[in-house]
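Task 17 of the worksheet. Students: predict the tertiary structure of the chain below and write it out as structure tokens. Keep your answer in the requested format; marks are given for formatting as well as content.
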Amino acid sequence: MNTQTVSAILDELTRCVCRNLEGQGAGPTCWCGMIVSGDGATWDFCGECAGDTCGMGYVRLVSIFPYTTFPQPTPGVCASEMGLTLEVGALRCLPIADESGLPPSPEEIEESTLGVIADMHALQQAIMCCDLPGDPLVEIGTWMAQGPRGGCVGGAWTVQVSDV
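Model answer:
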């Protein structure tokens, strides 16, 4: 797996994620893009922006691993095939107390929860239906809830992509 292949896969998956969040998920995000370094996604882009839009979508490179049988990493072997582990996620603003200190209504909490579920499904569809360059094998793992933290809540899928 070379740098251009990794970049092309990340670019195309990011396009699919951003398109699906807007069209099938809870709506447009303030920021949607690729995060390629660090041990976790920064939540700095999850906030409110113009037009009552809030949140972020992302694809993050978690690791690259050698394998002989995909998707099982095979450390310590001379393997020419390498796989990617990715995190594909979305975060949205969480309803908070109003100026008088009253908590969000049950309806606002339910709407937020349904938005997270819509994003989860939109991300899953983006991962499984995206036409990635080289037609690699894609193994989707578990979706994990994230937050609430800093006024945001959401979740992310773990994904493994084979050598192309």
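Marker's comment: The mean pLDDT is 90. Residues 3-161 form a domain with the STM4215-like fold (CATH 3.30.2000).
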